[in-house]
Request: fold
Amino acid sequence: MERNRNNEKLDKTILRTSANYLLPLLILFSIFLLIRGHYLPGGGFIGGLIASIAFVLHSFAYSPMQTLRMFSIKPFFLIPTGLLVSFLSGLLPVVLGRSFMTGVWFAESVVVIGAFGSALLFDLGVYMVVVGVVLTILFTISENT
Amino acid sequence: MELLLVILVGAFYSAGIYMMFRRSMVKLLLGLLLLGNGANILIFLIGGITKGKAPIIKPQNTEFLEVYADPVPQALILTAIVISFALTAFAIVLLKRVYTTTGSDDLDSLNIQDLDI
Amino acid sequence: MTTNFILAPVLMHLFTAILLLFFWQKVFVQKVISIVGNSIAFILCLRLFEMTLTNGYLTLQLGGWQAPFGITFMADTLSAIMVLLTALVSLAVGIYSTSSLNISRIKFGYFFIFHFLVMGLLGAFLTGDIFNLYVWFEVVIISSFILLTVGGKKMQMEGAIKYVTMNMLASVIFLTAIGILYGITGTLNIADLAGKVAQVENKGLVTVTSLLFFVGFGIKSAVFPLYFWLPSAYHTPPSAIAAIFGGLLTKMGIYAMLRVFTVVFQPDHFTLTLFSVIAILTLITGALGTINKRSIRRILSYLIVCHIGYLIAGLGLNTELAFVAVIFYLIHDVIVKSNFFMISGIILKMRETVDITRLGSLLKDYPKFSFMVALVLFSLIGIPPLSGFWPKVLLFQETFKQENYVLLAALIVASFVTLFVVIRIWSEAFWKESPKPITEEIDHFRPFSLSGKIALIAPVIGLTAVSLFIGLNANNVFKLAEKAAYEMKHPEIYINNVLSTKE
Reply:
């Protein structure tokens, strides 16, 4: 049914096929940007935006409802979770007796990721907040129209 | 380059202030945006424009060996842009709400208040 | 002393806000979390206040980056006083709003935004970095925009537009000033700026920059001629929101002025004269504005403007004793203004209106409540021994000593107008017979459950008690203000403490 209605406006076959492949690719790319962001261009904000673009593209190809179905929790809850992760990453050095938000790093570098520290955790929190905010805005708008 | 930016800053500020004096609410908002952008470029300009590398000292060195660009103005501008993004998004929603309640873009149409003291 | 504890109140409010987001739309849980979070934050602020008094100065170099490169957090006596006041008012308003606001507003995330706003205020009072101050200002104004405009009716819209426009403009001016300051000094740390600004040879540029700061902060703290947004915005939101706005938001601008014009810029003769002139005009316009108003909230809004004049006057006198008066007055003003906005909310619940011509016989119907309001009104005027009296006397004395008679006249006129307006509120709303009979439908206060009534009245009693305490214990508060004023007059202590701290 829905397909027929869409066919009248525009045939979405190409967009849908490409969105299917682009979604995992873009998310992978966003994670790449998130991890390299400490010294190189990238970071949580940009990574989060790219990840949300992936979902936005998917919602264009299908419908916002179908995109929403991919989430087992509401994207809204990514916002407090992300804030909490960032908050705790700032608190971590306090536990170790340093100033709030001091970067603390593991001595050993982790496979693939490289140096792992509280800065990455902070960025991860930002990433989640950005994805949460963009998706919440998107779904709120699509519900109202 | 500097002169160009100086002119640009002046243009942004004057255009912004001019737009704020109009009666239309959308123009008011545009004026505020222009002012904000003018302020950002001002920070960029006044912080000193240098061609240089990112200010990261290599592990084997203890000080900067090459010319480096001052990262502070960029950080300031980035922060200011993000903040003004949020404010603008909010202001647009507010203006839309005003438009739907009053049905007008004219600021004078809002002047009902001073009747009830 | 370097300690992470300085951030504890800020982080507590942030944590409460995050927790509230997890319980979106669950009204009861949100109320409980908010009250618990506010109480813990209050205890933390009390502890911070005590630590600052015993240790003198608390500092924190965020992220372990040494000043002047990193962001510094700094608590001196002035900051500690402001933090304590914020905690007190936010606790009172937090409890008050659990009962006074309707459910839909709470579902819209009221408490989340509220805690975010308080976090911004605390951050602004504790930061030692001028750009960080800008960021906290933005946190506060964006939260205040949301609180002010949610559920907007047409009446709110004009105020909201003015408020949003003026505050955005103030931010741009503030940002421009920061940009120029960074351009001429190359630093953003307030303590470091102090030394660098003094070395700048182009004094004219420094004065212009300082005046840009004054305009930016002046819009936020509603001084003449930039105050007009305040009376049209502050009387529209629910009283709980108006209480926190009226008590703290304008004072944030005053705090920033006190900080910038004591540490960073040393005001010259021209700037001081300007402050005095602005103070006189603010006092007069604010006072004149109150006279023909009928709504209690509008009267209060103009009184806020009028009383900002006292604070600017003290800033213009620029002596240690004047600063003592300013700080004392600030303490008194924050408590009384928040309290009175909450009282106006209770009156609104009792009579469905705050128009004093339509109010009446409150004294007959609610004698105990009226007695308490009388105490608040008396301390607003400054009848000895209540809290408003001492700072006013100090300020008058100091103005007289400096032979600034025009300012003295303006201060006295403003005091008398306050007296007149307060008497008018009292006789119209409390003494007079109600013009129309009070029916059951009008009174929304009596049907409240007992816990609801307690949540409405207890904060008002608490803040009134604080007002009384300040008045009766003026000796100690005076000593506290004296300590803060001494530190303001000797910025080198502040500067040394920030720049010499090692982790």
About this structure: The CA atoms of residues 248 and 334 of chain C lie 6 Å apart. Residues 4-499 of chain C form one domain.
